[in-house]
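Troubleshooting entry. Yesterday's outputs looked truncated, so today I'm pasting the complete records for two proteins to confirm everything comes through intact. If either block looks cut off, that's the bug. Protein one:
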Amino acid sequence: MNWNNWCRQIHRWLSIAFTLAVIINIIAMVQERSSVGVGLLALLPLALLLLTGLYLFVLPHATRWRSARRSSGWG
């Protein structure tokens, strides 16, 4: 499996982890047992989702840029 497919798979699993963390946070708030640790539980998957999402967003643009540069004879 190449790097792009690996990153997509990680992004999918992180979205599941983030969703579960948000659900846990909501349950803790409803039960009035919310704490800072529960509140911060969703931030780690969210930060990793941001990084993988930005990579996946830039990927098609970088591919076009590389192919245009290659066809113009620069590399």
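Protein two, checking that the full record survives here as well:
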Amino acid sequence: MVTIQEAITTVTTNTNKLVKPTVKPIEKANGYLLFEDILSPINMPPFRQSAMDGYALNLHDSLTYMVIDEVKAGDGHKPALKPGEAVRIFTGAPVPNTANAVIMQEKVVATNNKIELAHNIDLEQNIRPLGEQVKQGNVALKKGTKLTPAGIGYLLSLGITEVNVYKKPTIAIVTTGNELIEPGQTLTHGKIYESNSKMLLSALYSLKFYDITLYKVEDDYKQTVNTLKYAVNTHNLVLITGGISVGDYDFVGKALKEIQVEEVFYKVKQKPGKPLFFGKKENTAVFALPGNPAAALSCFYVYVYIALQKMMGFKTTNLPRVTAKSTSKFIKKGDRPQFLKAIYSNGNVAFLEGQNSSMLQTFALSNALVFIPETVTEVNIGDEVETILLPV
């Protein structure tokens, strides 16, 4: 049995970054890391651009200007201005080459074809220069940058339609157990609805992982071996729920050994989620999660999340942790560190009722896990506690 910190360190050091690139249409690249520097194919903006609605001026000594033309966004013509002349211009429109300042419309008095400025303005004022954001040929975004909606919009504004990104892991979710049936079927005596696979699928979807395959095996040793062998050989990450304990019909541990998955650790001194297995075969990471749903999801956020981030090449692999003030009392039984389902808000955190590892009702209301160390036996109102913020 290992400690929580030992387990976290071991998962981090034994999970490899995926190094294969894949080409993605830019609109489908959200959440991916860039595999290479992106060089800008154009200047952005591609022309001197008006920063506001107003008048583009060819400056002279007087505050009075003659308005000779109009330029709106998208116009391609290039009026020539003499000193003392102006054109009506709008935000985003190209500033004529012969104009050297733009004054906002609120700062002038317009009469017929003349305008009177309220004050003098500086050269190039309110003009976005050519290539202000990025110049043609320069690095627009560096290798390893995580693409966000803003990043995608930025690259699209440069005319880029596809990018080379680090490949996301292919993931297998394997559920075991004769007692499990699909929701929608008739619930007969001794059966329960299977929820772990879709729960983990939803958690992965929320983190923008989509290449996921679900497998279901009965409590049969040969079937367990064959399914796990295929999953391990064809995926980068395998998540197994149930069957890792030592009961007569728990075949997962024995099957993993037969297919030569190296056991890195088995069992973590924690509650919930003690019977957690982590192993690897070549570059495939394997987690055998507890069968109890709340325990499985807790282990997913504390350990599997780290492996996913490490595979993607992210430098920060843990979920964010903050120190929060407890608004609840709690007495810990036993000597194992514990993760408590909780609600965090504005620096305060409240523990929820129903912390049993089989209960998802409480987890459904929580947005955080509070970590209670081995040395702490009691938490009182006002105590500061370490709080893991869950993805929303």
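Both blocks look complete. Sanity check on protein two: The two ends are 32 Å apart (CA to CA).
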